[in-house]
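REVIEWER CHECKLIST
Item 1: Sequence provided? yes
Item 2: Single chain? yes
Item 3: Sequence as submitted:
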Amino acid sequence: MEALLYEKLEDKKVRCNLCHHHCVIKDGNRGICSVRENRGGILESLVYGKLIARHIDPIEKKPLFHYLPGSLSYSISTVGCNFRCLFCQNADIAQMPSDRKGMIMGDYCSPEGVVTEAFEGNCKTIAYTYTEPTVYFETALDTAKIAHGKGIKNVFVTNGYMTPEAVRLISPYLDAANVDLKAFNDDFYKKICGARRTYVLETLKEMKAQGIFLEITTLIVPGLNDDMKELGALADFIVKALGPEVPWHISRFHPTYKLIDRPATPHATLIKAREIGIKAGLRYVYTGNVPGDEGEHTYCYQCGKLLLKRMGFCVRQNFIQDGCCPDCGAVIDIVFHRN
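Item 4: Structure as written out by the authors:
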């Protein structure tokens, strides 16, 4: 299928404008994502509808804790990614084309088919996740349009590297997103992810301006992005540029893929980072990949009352009344209904 958001150049070259790499691709070659190929001066998506994964998950697994909590999300992905994170937790599918000489696997499912399966599975949302949804943008956009017509919402789990043009194109149909803000220093992004931090910050601001509900995740890697001053600056950015109501998920790293020389994140680091986020003014800061930790619950930012008690990805108890804390009346920043 012909790709969206590209321009034709001389000598049958094309420039892809889907993400901030802005790949200039010669005839017969692919972009950094390895799933968009120049064929005779036409940029083609090689993964349209070619799903490598589709599952029904709790929305909390994305993780989205403040958007339709306790609901199910029909989760899909194709292969491919426009990042090269050394700690990629889904490298077997995200990095498949780049690691396996361009290999692309997956079974075709039409956008209509995805929406039908989501509806039959009693899913309130469709999540474009597991790999990077930007690289299968055409599939996501077509599916999201149909889903909205059926009353099903759409959420991205993304690295946030898409261009403003891409954000604006999907925004009428994209209801929420969890964006990985992987670090707050450029060296980490360049050396560990193969990208630039500044563009992720721009995407976050653009998503907020477009009215997309945001949550943010940072995977803490020991010795690479766990400096407490840096984490404080990251939290300060969220508060000042996006708003104190935006939830921040701080996740525990486990050695994987090409980053196996680092230990798992100490629990104490997560606790300290959570404290820093709260001190910076964030209302909701969560610890992830630590089942049973108190940092996975939602507390009232005003009086401290336990409001949502979770165990893993399940909501066990909900004490919120009419969107407010039952003790102090503070309005809690959670979307409980699709409309």
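Item 5: Key structural point noted by reviewer: The chain has a mean pLDDT of 97.
Item 6: Recommendation: ____
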